């Protein structure tokens, strides 16, 4: 009877598991690099992008978990690795969803980062999600050290302004038309985001959203 005591070809089971984990992490980070490259027109050289990603730590959040809370001072930078996040704010007495962040999207509180003021938007996980975290200190050091990184950060900011305007031009009209646009351009939001958040984003009640989804399905 051959007993290998957890070893195969000189490698322990632990070695095999760790090697597999390393490969999976490599593929996951490589995918994140590709997504970040699609977020703006300026292409950051790989060695500098690697430095940025190596300086980040993952934060895992369950659905409903808060990454940045309204009223808190958090100047740090985050990038969505997995899942979906939403930007919420208080409109009078009602919670409103302003926007969603998908994998590859950079997230931060502009109030906190630029002026050190409390955050206006609450950034919350819409489903089980992972965000990569970089401190403002490290981010600013990369900006100061690498001209290419500064150009990339500026391009990212310009791109976010563009997408904000594009969203208004594409996902507009009445609630039914905006729902159709979401179905066409961002179907994963409909699959993973709770009804109350989606209804808030569209500015309608959950009951009316259910009616619209039934009509859309029948057509």
Plain-language structure description:
- This protein is α+β, with helices and mostly antiparallel strands and 219 residues long.
- It has a single domain, classed as Sandwich (Jelly Rolls), CATH 2.60.120.10.
- 51% of the residues lie in helices and 21% in strands.
- It has nine helices and ten strands.
- The strands form three sheets. Strands 3-10-5-8 form a four-stranded antiparallel sheet.
- β1 and β2 form a beta hairpin.
- α6 crosses α9 and α8 crosses α9.
- The longest helix has 25 residues.
- The protein is globular.
- The termini are far apart.
Question: Keywords, please?
Answer:
219 residues; 9 helices; four-stranded antiparallel β-sheet; Jelly Rolls; alpha+beta
Q: How do the SSEs run, as a string of H and E?
A: EEHHEEEEEEHEEHHHHHH
Summed over residues and divided by their number, the pLDDT gives a mean of 86
| CATH topology tier name | Jelly Rolls
CATH structural architecture: Sandwich
CATH domain class: Mainly Beta
Across the major sheet, the strand order is 3-10-5-8
Summarize the structure in short.
The protein has 219 residues and is an alpha+beta fold. The chain has helices at residues 13-37, 46-54, 110-115, 136-145, 147-170, 175-185, 187-192, 195-202, 206-218; strands spanning 7-8, 11-12, 57-61, 66-68, 77-82, 85-91, 94-101, 106-107, 122-125, 129-134.
What topology does this entry show?
Blueprint: E1 7-8, E2 11-12, H1 13-37, H2 46-54, E3 57-61, E4 66-68, E5 77-82, E6 85-91, E7 94-101, E8 106-107, H3 110-115, E9 122-125, E10 129-134, H4 136-145, H5 147-170, H6 175-185, H7 187-192, H8 195-202, H9 206-218
Antiparallel strand pairs: 1-2, 3-10, 4-9, 5-8, 5-10, 6-7, 6-9
Helix pairs in contact: 4-5, 6-9, 8-9
